[in-house]
Design goal:
single chain, 574 residues, mainly alpha, Amino acid/polyamine transporter I, two-stranded antiparallel sheet, 18 helices, transport, membrane
Length: 574
């Protein structure tokens, strides 16, 4: 362990060149802040890890016309593999569709128990840390102060975390679970073929409504946000407190030691890049599906694959502009705009929809969620295979594939918060917002359906939101706002993801040249297009699950590292 006054502590995770570092260590120069995006040194007494690794020591860089600063071999292997995958998928799109679908079904069907157990572990870890003395540890050191206001911080973590998904599933999932629960179990040849959660609520409208909302909240509440929180906490702890680069490999220093700077760490970071790319591509695919369907619904624009591709290209271009502007000017402003629009749409639906049902339903749905949480979390002894595998296992794999992206992004904007603040903000507050959103959107759809309107149940998933809004005042305006929300959530996810992938592929540097961010932003769009051509949403889901499975193992290892790292912090400040 290093003396907290050791000048090298201020250099951990920083992008200065080696000569400048040597001059500081010899007392010939002082540390000078040269970039607003450089990772600050820990403030106060922390356990800075003693390692000879210098950030960027494995990088290849150039200051030419197209500057770059990339980690070798993480960038080279990741970019090459993704390029080959994209080209092959586009060339053999029709032949690959059955393969993608089969891979998705095999992973969610055979490993559903594994995903459910892992999700439960992440929730329990967060609860234990919130209630334990470890919750008082401050990320960045005991004297660190937050970099962003609470409002800006919350807007960024929420918009990056689930925006597109909430728009796509806000109506479609509650109404789907309600319909299947009301119909009840369907058994053919001794096997259930229905999609109802648990045993459904056949013929019981109130019971089906409660179970449908509980199942929806289960997928958008504590479990997914716990996954994000674990990654965010681990990255923030080992970067801001331990002085290591802001990259996934740093989390595993307590486990692998100096080997994290070799091929062990290379594999972890490469896997993180793959998981992030394919997790983002899945969300971008959902966004393209819904935005295109909405444009067709409102303006008669053809809802074709070509339209979706054009939309992805156009929005990727906007995302590039946001990437160039950076976190403060680009991502933060877009996130706040989107949160404002989402809040207006939410308040509008509450005001003109079944207001009393929404308000009472919020508390009733929280109660239903609490009642069904353990049965829905149980990985064994259930026969609702379609729901458990097709919904829950896929969701958990999807959230986990997103976790490097969302977790690192949250870590980047959470310096100065305590462990307890981060976990409560990331775990509890967004979960409550998700409950309110699903209650307002999905609850309104269920009320309209019970009132005799069948358009929502009959519509395709991507059109259910617009069918629900069609039954409320100002339908054309609110539907257009819905499309704008999908598009801007699309942009915030893409630009945030580009910043994160670039950090990983640059060996932990968070101020790498802008062309690299543009490169990854372009690739996100290309991968989404390739997968749309190679099997649509089925292919997108398959790749999210395939990268989510191995990364689940990585996150389980990260849990042990978190406790070890927090224990050392408590010991230092005791």
């Amino acid at each position: 362990m290093k003396d907290p006054t050791d000048p090298r502590k201020g250099l951990k995770g920083r992008p200065e060149d080696r000569e400048a570092q040597r001059r500081v260590l010899k007392g010939e120069a002082e540390i000078v802040e040269t970039d607003d995006e450089a990772i600050p040194s820990p403030e106060g007494v922390t356990e800075v890890i003693d390692t000879d690794y210098e950030i960027g020591q494995d990088n290849i860089s150039s200051d030419g016309k197209v500057p770059f600063d990339i980690h070798n071999p993480v960038f080279v292997i990741s970019a090459t593999a993704i390029l080959i995958f994209t080209v092959v998928t586009m060339l053999f799109a029709s032949a690959l569709e059955p393969y993608f679908t089969g891979m998705r079904d095999a992973l969610t069907g055979g490993l559903d128990w594994f995903f459910l157990i892992a999700g439960n572990i992440f929730v329990l870890v967060c609860v234990v840390l919130i209630l334990s003395p470890y919750g008082s540890v401050r990320l960045g050191g005991p004297d660190a102060t937050p970099d962003f206001t609470m409002t800006g911080w919350f807007a960024m973590l929420f918009a990056a975390g689930m925006g597109i998904g909430l728009m796509f599933y806000g109506v479609s999932e509650p109404i789907s679970h309600f319909d299947t629960s009301l119909a009840g179990p369907v058994v053919e040849n001794g096997v259930r073929t229905d999609w109802a959660p648990l045993q459904g609520a056949p013929g019981d409208e109130l019971g089906a409504r409660r179970l449908g909302m509980a199942a929806t909240i289960f997928h958008w509440g504590l479990h997914p946000w716990a996954i994000y929180a674990v990654v965010a906490l681990a990255l923030a702890l080992f970067s801001y407190n331990k002085g290591l680069p802001l990259t996934m490999r740093s989390i595993f220093y307590p486990i692998f030691g100096e080997r994290v700077w070799g091929w062990t760490g290379h594999c972890i970071d490469i896997l993180a890049v793959f998981a992030t790319i394919f997790g983002l591509a899945t969300s971008l695919g959902f966004g393209a599906e819904q935005a295109t369907a909405g444009l067709s619904y409102l303006f008669g624009i053809p809802n074709t694959t070509l339209t979706k591709i054009i939309l992805i290209i156009a929005i990727t271009g906007v995302a590039m502009l946001s990437v160039v502007l950076g976190v403060e000017k680009g991502v933060k402003r877009l996130s706040e705009i989107n949160m404002g629009l989402a809040l207006l749409l939410l308040l509008f639906v509450i005001a003109v929809g079944p207001t009393a049902d929404i308000i009472s339903g919020f508390f009733g749905n929280l109660g239903a969620y609490a009642k069904e949480l353990i049965p829905l979390s149980n990985p064994f002894g259930r026969d609702d295979d379609n729901f458990r595998q097709g919904w829950t296992a896929f969701y958990w794999a999807w959230w986990i594939s997103w976790s490097p992206f969302v977790g690192m992004f949250i870590a980047r904007v959470s310096r100065g918060r305590t462990v307890r603040e981060l976990l409560v903000a990331v775990l509890v507050v967004p979960s409550i917002v998700c409950v309110l959103w699903m209650t307002a959107m999905g609850g309104t759809a269920i009320s309209l359906t019970l009132g005799g309107f069948t358009g929502i149940s009959d519509a395709a998933l991507e059109l259910k939101l617009f069918q629900m809004l069609s039954q409320l005042p100002l339908a054309s305006i609110t539907s257009f706002v819905g499309i704008i929300l999908v598009i801007v959530f699309f942009v915030t996810s893409s630009d945030s993801g580009s910043l994160v992938i670039d950090t990983i592929a640059a060996g932990g540097k968070i101020n790498a040249p802008v062309p690299q961010r543009v490169f990854w932003c372009t690739f996100e769009g290309l991968v989404a297009i390739a997968l749309m051509l190679g099997g649509g949403l089925g292919a997108l889901q398959a790749m999210a699950v395939s990268t989510g499975f191995p990364f689940t193992i990585v996150l389980l290892g990260a849990v042990w590292a978190i406790f070890k790292g927090l224990h050392a912090e408590r010991r230092e400040t005791a």
